[in-house]
Specification:
Layout lengths: L1 H15 L3 H4 L10 H15 L3 H11 L7 H17 L3 H14 L4 H13 L3 H14 L4 H32 L4 H4 L5 H7 L6 H10 L1
Helix pairs in contact: 1-7, 1-9, 3-4, 3-5, 4-5, 5-6, 5-7, 6-7, 7-8, 7-9, 8-9
Length: 210
């Protein structure tokens, strides 16, 4: 399950960086930030090639352009956050995402990407709220749908596994492997209400048939 979730997150990250500057509408002040935008495009190319460290450095250069409009600066902060996340720095990524939200609160990709970073910090409820916010702003935004669905699937799997975990200790005392216990979710109630078996052999037969 962990590898599947990682794949979903990677796909979502690919969908949410690099295009930021092209998705945003043009405005009259955009020409003033052309130098920063060119640097950001250079950084996006580096990130596409897997050079996340270089991308962070070049995005940082892009942000030095003081003429960048707020929406463009927010998009670059979002993209630098993606690069930070790829370097295993989710807290630094969240710092960038928070700054982006302050500048451009209606930008859906930043909430999706912040949700991914929150998942990596073990904060699933906060992550789901961010995925929900991304979808409220952009109802057709596929990466947020994928990430939210993946997180909820993991939550359901964990909830289903909890009785198996309690049962696992009981199974080990009975000489049955934990892997086997996962296939018998109703066993604890059956054992609690059943009469004491006459022998070990009868117990083994009853469990294996369940």
């Amino acid at each position: 399950m962990r590898s599947t979730t990682s794949q979903v997150c990677v796909l979502a990250l690919r969908a949410c960086f690099g295009m930021a500057l092209f998705l945003l509408p043009m405005n009259p002040a955009a020409a003033a930030g052309e130098a920063g935008i060119r640097k950001a495009q250079e950084a996006a190319a580096a990130l596409t090639k897997g050079n996340a460290e270089q991308a962070v450095a070049v995005y940082t250069e892009a942000l030095q352009d003081q003429t960048l409009p707020n929406d463009r600066r927010a998009a670059i902060l979002n993209d630098r956050g993606v690069a930070q996340n790829k370097l295993g720095q989710p807290r630094l990524a969240i710092d960038d995402y928070n700054r982006a939200v302050q500048l451009f609160a209606e930008y859906a990709p930043v909430y999706n990407n912040r949700g991914i970073a929150l998942l990596r910090l073990g904060l699933p409820q906060e992550a789901i709220r961010d995925f929900d916010r991304a979808l409220a702003l952009a109802p057709g935004f596929a990466p947020a749908y994928s990430n939210r669905a993946s997180r909820r699937a993991r939550h359901l799997s964990a909830a289903a596994a909890r009785p198996c975990s309690r049962q696992g200790a009981l199974m080990r005392r009975s000489g049955i492997s934990h892997a086997r216990s996962q296939t018998m979710p109703a066993l604890p109630r059956a054992i609690a209400g059943a009469p004491r078996p006459a022998s070990k052999s009868s117990t083994s037969t009853r469990l294996s048939r369940t």
